[in-house]
Amino acid sequence: MPKKVAAFGEVMMRLQVPGYELLTQADTLKYSFSGTGVNIVSALARFGHDGYLVTTLPANPLGDAAVAYLRKLGVAQDFIRRDGKYVGLYFLENGFGARPSRVTYTNRLESSFNTAPAGAYDWEAVAEGLDAVHFCGITLAMNDTVRGHMAELARAVKRKGGLVVFDCNYRPTLWGEGGYAKAKPHYIEMLSLADLVFMNEKDAIHILGMETSRTVRRDQLEDLIPAVADTYGIAAIAGTHRAIIGDGTHALQGFLYENRQFAFSKTLTFAVYDRIGAGDAYASGILHGALKGMPSGRTVEFAAAAAMLAHTVQGDTPMSTEAEIFRAMTEAAGDIER
After folding, report:
1. pLDDT at 128 exceeding the cut of 90
2. CA-CA distance, 269 to 248, in Å (whole number)?
3. In sequence order, what are the residues at sequence separation of 6 or more whose Cβ sits closer than 8 angstroms to the Cβ of residue 231?
4. Are residues 60 and 13 in contact, defined by beta-carbon separation less than 8 angstroms?
5. Are the C-beta atoms of 236 and 205 separated by less than 8 Å?
6. What is the C-alpha separation between 67 and 278, in angstroms, rounded?
7. Contact between residue 273 and residue 315 where contact means Cβ atoms under 8 Å apart
8. Mean pLDDT of 37-66
9. Secondary structure of residue 216 in the 3-state scheme
10. pLDDT of 331 higher than 80
């Protein structure tokens, strides 16, 4: 049976420079709409679940365009408010070789989502019948009102027996100077409410201030993640380790810690076409496995394959079906499908 899943988050307009040009070179931009919540619920809708986005979009043609785009992705419209005038924007310049890709945000704090006042949403109505709700650390960085929305919805979902999912997704540019100290109490609140968390050892060290005597990343992970789970009463924690090999090739390994045991995926090596949103593909794969009751090992292999495929498609939003991901888990890339 399909599950009912929601995500609370901002819809952003992505403005992408063609090819590998810089903003200072280009005279055209391609736009689309994205955001962590968009990516998560649209991926889960593609897997056969009912995906809802809880957000606010402007009551103007720009908001109409965003709603139309979400409709094409299979995102349910029930909890989308319409108010205000703006969406947040980000500009993407594709990296090449030694030059990394670059994201530049603008107009974000004035967006309809980030200016929605306290009391704007009916949390009890949103939480009714939800199997899971997803929150993101990027959203947590916005302002106190948005943080209040997150905590209220998380508590409403927990009262009704749903799963609370939190992706740490720490972004230094959003928190500013002294960001870790500013972020820590807000992260602790969300971790204390969450059942499933996406993070790795770097989040435990830098955001939570935890210490380890280990020096190897894998050892640090195996030392700190169980401590985080015990401290905050978290049922499952998942994440990835990535290595950038060069020449557009990355290696990625996923992990899932639950029932006091780690499950690791195979290390996948692949060429990268568009990296933005691949972490959301991984998260949607883990959440899909949890909703379907997959064993930990199969869940983490599914999520890693979902992330790998997301690197091969332009745009933030994961586009692979469950069948395509299962096939990628067992088959090497081949010739043209006919």
Report:
1. yes
2. 11
3. none
4. no
5. no
6. 23
7. no
8. 97
9. coil
10. no
